[in-house]
Amino acid sequence: MNKYIVAAAFSVMALFLATALPAAATPPSVKIRIAQYDKTIEFVMPKGGEWVSGDKKGKIQPDKTLRIEGHMSAPAVRRCHLMVGSAGINKPELLAEVESRFKQYTTHHFIAGHVPTAGYPDNRITFVGVGIFEDESKAKEQQNKLAAEGISSWIFYENINPAQGKLSLYQGKKKIATSEIGFELVPNASTKLKKAEFAKGFSWHGFADRQFAGRLFIGWSFENVIDCIEQTDLETLIIGIVPSEISSSAPESALQAQAVAARGEMLSKRGTRHYNEGFDFCSEQHCQVYKGIQSVDKTIGASIKNTFGQILENHEGGILDAVYSANCGGHSSSNDKIWVSNPDIHLQGVYDLSPASATEYMALMAKGHKGQLKTPFKLDLTDHKQAEAFILNPPKAWCSLPGVEGADKFRWQKSLSENDWKKVEAAAEVGRIRSIDEFIREVSGRIISIKIVGSSGEKTVLRELAIRKLFGMLRSSNFSVEWKRDKDGFIVGASFTGAGWGHGVGMCQTGAQSMAKAGHSFTQILLHYFPGAKLKKLY
């Protein structure tokens, strides 16, 4: 195989050093993209501050509304890579095993990440690719061909040059400064960004004014819009992430579990996610939800202070990528089936049932599945019939208990009208749809592969997120469905009954709150969802 090495940006589950982690000195400084704007940004510094651009700088008066206007002169330059696997940079045996699966293709390597600083793991990743494309549409064509062969892949972008253009700073009609390198905003206390967009592509998408205490960097991005990036330290960021990701009124041990999980996920991915984009993380679901300064920060800080610097250590002595989702639906998912990643023994899925409710449920279910259930707690949710029974006749689970935020997402329903279905047909690109079947489920019951047969072709859709998006962003891909057909047999609508909200890998945030409410410590919660991991103080 003809191979070469390039550098790029994206992230999947990282693998880490097999040796124990040395102690780090202090929390790291991190940069997080907090907002994007098409052309104009409005902001206020309540206590004033200053702007900086190169060797130029000036004062910003308190409570004055300023704006930055952008005029792009050249779009960003990116290159599309089609990736099929990965391995930690220190895992040559795993890299060879990944490549052995794709001997029929000419593969290339793509290294993402930075050389680690003292006290932190080398989490650089070598991606294995099967094609480089200047045109995204060509990459998607090849991706569809691979899917038809049952091969999961993903497209990411090699960031070569960000968009170019001018940014001008105004107060009212007065132009204060113009820059081609961007602005740094340094507040005396905080900066309020007006109409910051959030949750783009989700049903709760919207705009809100948000405040941030750190230095802000404003410049053109690789997405041909203006990026706003905050620089802060990780522990300050964690205080903001916890109430953005889980209810601020959650029991204390659930808040603590969320803090440890978030810290581990960020440190495990730092340097690989958004590599070469000018920041470490984004403030959206892609990385971790972060809303800046919130009224509950002082309370949250006090609640999680005993977790300062703590992470979960994996079986190899590295930082566990302690991912989480809103509601697992009764069983968490396996990471390598949900994403194109290597199996992690701590992320293979667990029942979210207490022992008492599990035993009671299995006894009832066994009556309808004689000969299939050999021992309690062994319902096979990869089996389509058993998974549907689990969805339609659910057990009591930690994430189903009333009185906890997110419990109403344990089971859900959604119907698609004929107009909704036209969007599904447009996305599937196979003409009028005659059948959708050949469901493949992973350990939680989530569907990770479907086959669509239409009037003008066939298509295989792989991975849970792509399946959710196909049907108008379902809460999860763990569902039972009834198709609505016309007189000619074509599907014209659908009624879904589903389980859970999100990908389901790792910690179930709803279940964590119920466990905390029942008196479990944050350590017990974490070890329930990440079996075999160990709690470790990193700094």
Please, could you describe this protein's structure?
This protein is α+β, with helices and mostly antiparallel strands. Among the domains are: 5-22 and 77-152, no CATH class; 39-76 and 162-224, no CATH class; 411-499, no CATH class. The protein has helices at 92-100, 136-148, 234-245, 252-269, 297-304, 335-338, 355-366, 384-392, 418-428, 464-470, 509-517, 522-529, and strands at 5-7, 29-37, 40-44, 49-53, 56-60, 65-74, 77-88, 108-112, 125-133, 154-161, 164-171, 174-179, 183-187, 191-198, 206-212, 215-220, 226-233, 281-282, 310-313, 324-325, 411-416, 433-441, 447-454, 457-462, 479-485, 491-499, 507-508, 534-537. Strands 5-4-13-16-17-2-18 form a 7-stranded mixed sheet. α3 (234-245) packs across α5 (297-304), α4 (252-269) packs antiparallel against α11 (509-517) and α4 (252-269) packs across α12 (522-529). The longest helix is centred in the middle third of the chain and has 18 residues, at 252-269. The two termini are 43 Å apart.
Number of strands: 28
Largest sheet data: 7 strands, mixed
Anisotropy-based shape: globular
The percent of residues in helical segments reads 10-25%
Spatial arrangement of strands, main beta sheet = 5-4-13-16-17-2-18
* Overall pLDDT: 90
Beta content comes to: 25-35%
Q: Give the termini distance in whole angstroms.
A: 43 Å
Taking all Cα atoms into account, the compactness measure Rg is 24 Å
Structural class: alpha+beta
* Sequence stretches where pLDDT stays below 50 over 5 or more residues: 1-21, 369-376
Number of helices: 12
